[in-house]
Amino acid sequence: MRDFPNWPDPRAHILRHQPDTAMLYFAPATLQATAKRFQRGFDGLVTYAVKANMGEEVLANLVTAGLRAFDVASPREMYAVRAVCADAVLHYNNPVRSNEEIAVAVALGVRSFSVDCERELDKLAGVAPGSEMTVRLALPVSGAAYDFGEKFGVGPDRAVVLLQKVVAHGFIPSMTFHPGTQCADPAAWGAYIKVVADVARKAGVRLARLNVGGGFAAHRWGAAPDLEKIFSHIRREVNSCFGAHAPELVCEPGRAMVADAFTLVTRVKALRDSGAVFLNDGIYGGLTEARDIGCTDRVRAMGPDGTWRKDAPKARVVYGPTCDSIDRLPDPLPLPGDMAEGDYVFFDGMGAYSRSLSTGFNGYGLSDPVTVAAL
Ligand SMILES: *Cc1c(COP(=O)(O)O)cnc(C)c1O
Q1: How many CB atoms lie within 10 A of CB 333?
Q2: 200 and 234 in contact (C-beta within 8 Å)?
Q3: Is residue 200 a contact partner of residue 160, using CB atoms and an 8 Å limit?
Q4: Whose CA is closest to 219, among 188, 180, 256, 263?
Q5: Structure confidence by residue, pLDDT tens digits, 314-366
Q6: Helix axes 186-203, 156-168, angle to 10 degrees
Q7: What is the pLDDT of residue 1?
Q8: Which residues of the chain carry a pLDDT beneath 50?
Q9: What is the dihedral sign for C-alpha 344, 345, 349, 351?
Q10: Closest CA to 179 of 218, 214, 155
C-alpha cells in the first residue's frame, strides 16, 4: 500500500501546500472507530459495501479494524478487496451478473450471492453448488433519502417461490433487503423484517441468515443519526418475528461506515457581485450526490492563511468548475458573508459516494486522498 504523508489535519496541509485542486482528506482513526462501533453495536456479521468508496486505504483500514467480509458488486471490487486481504469473505450482492462475472466470482471463492429472479438463480445453479443464495426482497417502504427498491428485489409473493427454488437447488437459503440509502428511521428495517419472516413462513423455509442491507444514515444534516437505536430495533424485531428460529444477522453499510472518515476541501475560484460562488469541484466531482439527495449542511470556510470565516452565513448559489450549466448545486448554500476568492470550503462527512462517483470531466476531479490524524 502507498505510504501517504501524514498531517495533523487538513488545515496544516493546506497552509503548507495551498492546494488549487479539490482535495479529499482521510482520517484512518475515524474510519476504524466507526468500524468498531458497528462491530460493537450490531448483533451479527458486519460487512462493508465496497461501492461507497473502494480506496485501498479504506479497505486496508477496515481490515485493520477487524472487518473480514465485504459486499461486492463486480470483479473489480472483488480484486480490490483481495489486494488488501487475501482471505476476505466476499458476498456478491449485485443480483444481476454476466456468466463471465460469475466465473470470476467462483474462481475467487465467492460462496454467497443475492438473487431476485429465477433466471439469475438458474445461471448460478451449475457453477456455485452449495453456496448461500440470498433472496432480495423489495417493498414500498419510506424513510430513506433514495429508494433502492425500484431496480432490484422481488415482492413477497415471488420471494416465497424463489426461496423454495433456492432450497430445491440445494443452496443455503437466506434473505436480504436494502431499505434505501441515508435511512435514519428504524421502522424501515422493522417493516422489512416482518415481511421477511412472513415470506420464510409461507415458503416453509428456515433462513440461515438475514442480511439487513446498508442504508444506515450518515451525519449529513442536523444531528448525527443514532445508529445504536437502529441496531437495537433490528434485534428486537428479529427476535419478535422469528422467535427461536432467528437467522444469523448480516449488515452491509457503505455510507455510514465511510462518510465521516473524509472531508472534501474545495477552493473558491471566483466570487460574483450577486454573492454566487464558483468552486473547483461540483456535481461532476465529489459533490455528485448533492443533486440526488441534497447537499450536506456540514460546511466550513477558511481563508488561505488558515483563519476560519465567521461572518453570518449568506445563501449563495454554488457553481462547480466545469463549463456545463447543470454543474451547480441544487439549492443555495449558506456560506459566510466574509468569504473571498482563494478561500477553502470544507464539506465534512464526504467519504461515501464522492470519490467513487467523481469524474475527470473538463479536466477537474479529485486528487488522491491525503491522510490526516483528525479532520
Ligand atoms: C449500495 C448497497 C449497499 C450500501 O448502501 P449504503 O446506503 O451506502 O449503506 C449495501 N448493499 C447493497 C446490496 C447495495 O447495493
Answers
A1: 21
A2: no
A3: no
A4: 256
A5: 999 999 999 999 999 999 999 999 999 999 999 999 999 999 999 999 999 99
A6: 50
A7: 45
A8: 1-3
A9: negative
A10: 214
- Residue 363 gets the label, from left (phi > 0), alpha (psi -120 to 50) or beta, of left
**Predicted pLDDT of residue 151:** 79
Ligand 1 centre to CA of 216 (Å) is 9
Grid cell 445563501 in the structure block, residue: 315
Point out the residues that are catalytic.
323
For residue 274, which of 216, 221, 330, 317 has the smallest C-alpha distance? 317
Ligand 1: residues whose CB is within 6 Å?
A: 49, 51-52, 71, 93, 178, 181, 213-216, 252-256, 352
Over its C-alpha atoms, the chain yields an Rg (Å, rounded) of 22
| Terminal-residue alpha carbon distance, the chain | 22
Mutate to test the pocket of ligand 1, among 174, 178, 353, 356 (most ligand atoms within 8 A of CB): 178
Domains delineated in the chain: 6-25+259-372 (2.40.37.10), 28-258 (3.20.20.10)
User: Which amino acid, residue 164?
Assistant: Q
**Side-chain-facing half-sphere of 277: CA atoms under 13 Å:** 29
